[in-house]
Amino acid sequence: MRILFFFFGLIQAAAFAQPPTKPILLKSKNQWVDSNLDKDGWKYFQDQYTNESTLSEGDEEYSFVPSLLQSGKDLFSSLTGFSFSIRRFRMKGLNNRYFSQSIHEISMNQLSDGNIPWANWGGLNEVTSNNQYATGLKDNEYQFGGLGNSVFMQLNASKLSPQTTVALNFSNRNYHQRFAFTKVWAENKYGWSFATSIAFKQGLGGQLKANAFNGFSYFLSVDKSLKNHLFSLVLLGNKQANTRTAAVTEEMVSLTGTKQYQPGWGFQSNHIRNANWQFNHHPMLLLSHEYNLHEKIKQVSTLLLSTGEKFNTALDWYNSADPRPDYYRYLPSFLKDSLLSQNLLTHLQLNPTQLQINWDHLYWINQNSTPDKRARYLLEERVEQSKKIVLNTRYRIQLSDHLLLSFQGQFRTERYTYFKRINDLLGAAYSINWNQFAEDNLPGNTAIQNDLNHPNQILRVGDVFGYHYQMNLRQWLMMSQAIYTLPKFDFNAAIEYTATSYQRVGKYRNGVFPQNSYGASIPNYFSNYQIKMGVTYKLNGRNYFYFRTAYLTKPPLVNDLYISPRISSLIQVDMVNEATFMNELGYVLNAPSIKITANAYWIRTYHAMDVMSFYHDGYQNLVNYALSNIGTKMMGLELSMAYAMPGGLTFSAAMNAGKYIYQRRPNYSVMADNEPYISEKGVLYIDQFPITGLPQLALYSGLAYRSNGNIFLNLSGSFMANQWLSFNPIRRTYDAAQNLPANIDAQLITQPSALPNALIVDFSAGYSFRIKKFRDGSGYYLQFFLGVNNVLNQSIKTGGFEQLRFDTPGGDVNKFPNKYYYSPGTLYSLSIKTKL
């Protein structure tokens, strides 16, 4: 580490030692790009890499090569970002916490799980396209950035292109119609700028019979320019409710004759009803102030206030048969007698409604099981409420023509409240706040109580039950960055320090953990740092070579630190920071007719943690598998190319060839929800196993045509391979292998499950024309865009997982077979937009 700090200081020292030079005027292209068209290919091959360098008359003409700029997506991301997403491709094999998304310089990554809540601003395509990008370890002037890529969104009204836009969209995706209206006013003579946008989405039925989608997005931005100050207010949000899809087994596909089978819905009084909904609404208010203290010094400060709720609905039951129609005991494969199995198979094929939820039957049981109509079944909401306050300040100092310094300070506090809430009692009169998994404990034991402070609590619709706790998360951040530009070389270095604290506050005194569940827990503190450096050699204005390196530590995610936060404040014993080391080496060719990018990367992570919760047949209970000391290695090569041919044709190609594996053997410990102690410890035998959930080999090629008359056509194909299902840790333990019957080969249960290769063909077309022209050169425009994905109408496996339940005594992997997600075949989206 001393070497890294030494180089960081050396770059800044060398920068201060350089004599001043005459200014070079650099102009960068700043075009407003329609987000819908840019996303799907309209602007694939726009020059996104270099700026235009001009010399004022009388300046010395020495060899100064412009630096690499990236106002839009890099070529690789532009080509593959949409096409590879069907197989859940992630750049460099990294997980979500290593990607960054910011709005007004405030990171949107959540401290709880590292995820970016894209749905919070979904639907606002017309205003959320004003972005800057930094791929990999590339420098940026705003933040340290992520290892995968970083996106910086600016929503100031004065920085959006003046427009009046009306957009209509028709699709067979999860939503079927979309309407959006956007109005951006130019700054008036009093220094005020305004922008607003609203969008509606809705869908019902379609390729998935029980699909439903309703969404309303809103946006307001107000700017006030006052001398060298810019004051901004931004309000945005997306209120959305939609049904969810579930993974299914191959047996269910065979029984129903369709890969679009979904077990989460059924008929109630001859009307479709879905049990699996999700709701999300997190409005955000941002107050920003930009202050030009000096012609070379700029201060930007932003305050973020956000509050909201999201929840998923699901069926819950007590002392009753499992209501899920795809429960393994209800299927032919469960029956060992071949005649009975065949009879059941025939019966289900003749009565397909039995493979859906029988809502009327659930109501009947609730109303007839007990005289007082206590609920055997109910529909629950698994709720997460959040409140966030973030204050961020950054100074940008152009110390000289060659040296740019940035300093950032940030304070963040996030409060999450988790609980279950009764959505519908399904005809019952009440329920009781009991833990059914603790019923087998000693007679008279209080373990059955979910909340000892309110024993035997009677529950009605809207009441909280099951678990109820709060997570208070805080983080202080400081960052410093230097970017030093020379005629042939660019240097950059950045260092960041964070201090993070986690604290659980229990609202329930759980009957199993009465001493470790109620009230505030002892806070956990983490100190972390990140450092990165890079150098770019500018051979000329077209050829660039770069090398970048980084070392960083991150605190464990709060969801991976606490073993079972639903019921206790117990944490993993091996509480350490996650560490990552990354190198990348690359080349960029940016010529008028051809663009090439090549990037080789090598990444190691150490001491990662994870917690998996699931029903364990051996314990006959919900258990929590706490994993620690997880190590991974990701290495690979990203290539992309776009070649502009005569006649308006452009050929493009991209490839990611990676090898992502687990290193070492992680530790695991098992704790059941109804036992206050660790019942099992050991190691997972997954050293050199492939990292699951994403393709490690992905290829893309496309041919695009763009005419002078604004006609755009693009045909592309994507091939994805080397992808494995998320694995069950039980199958990779010593006990699982030792307890197998003699006729079972251990390789059958330990080898990872692979997905078949996939070839996807996509097509897109666009047409834009001016319907009216004004004397000042402006006009009214009408645009059409058609995107067709999966032209060959394949229903491929897009992902899946090994079920976490496992037949440990018998070693039968088919008792709980793999579950898969399937693509719905050909999808289309037709957009019609008018810009006034």
Task: Walk me through this protein's architecture.
The structure is a single chain. The protein is mainly β and 836 residues long. 9% of the residues lie in helices and 48% in strands. It has nine helices and 39 strands. The strands form six sheets. It has a 26-stranded antiparallel beta sheet that branches. Strands 4-3-6-5 form a four-stranded mixed beta sheet, with no helix packed on it. Strands 13-12-17 form a three-stranded mixed beta sheet. β29 (621-645) and β30 (649-663) form a beta hairpin. The chain is globular and about 80 Å long. The two termini are 56 Å apart. Mean pLDDT is 88; it is low at 1-63.
Chain-wise SSE layout:
Blueprint: H1 2-17, E1 25-27, H2 35-40, E2 52-54, H3 75-80, E3 100-103, E4 106-107, E5 131-135, E6 149-153, E7 163-171, E8 177-185, E9 192-204, E10 212-226, E11 229-243, H4 250-256, E12 265-268, E13 271-274, E14 277-281, E15 284-294, E16 297-317, H5 338-350, E17 357-358, H6 359-368, E18 377-398, E19 403-424, E20 431-432, E21 458-459, E22 464-485, E23 489-506, E24 519-520, E25 524-538, E26 543-554, H7 558-561, E27 578-590, E28 594-616, E29 621-645, E30 649-663, E31 667-672, E32 680-683, E33 697-706, E34 711-721, H8 734-738, H9 746-750, E35 758-773, E36 779-789, E37 797-801, E38 819-822, E39 827-835
Parallel strand pairs: 3-6, 12-17
Antiparallel strand pairs: 1-2, 3-4, 5-6, 7-8, 7-39, 8-9, 9-10, 10-11, 11-14, 11-15, 12-13, 14-16, 15-16, 16-18, 18-19, 19-22, 20-21, 22-23, 23-24, 23-25, 25-26, 26-27, 27-28, 28-29, 29-30, 29-31, 30-33, 31-32, 33-34, 34-35, 35-36, 36-39, 37-38
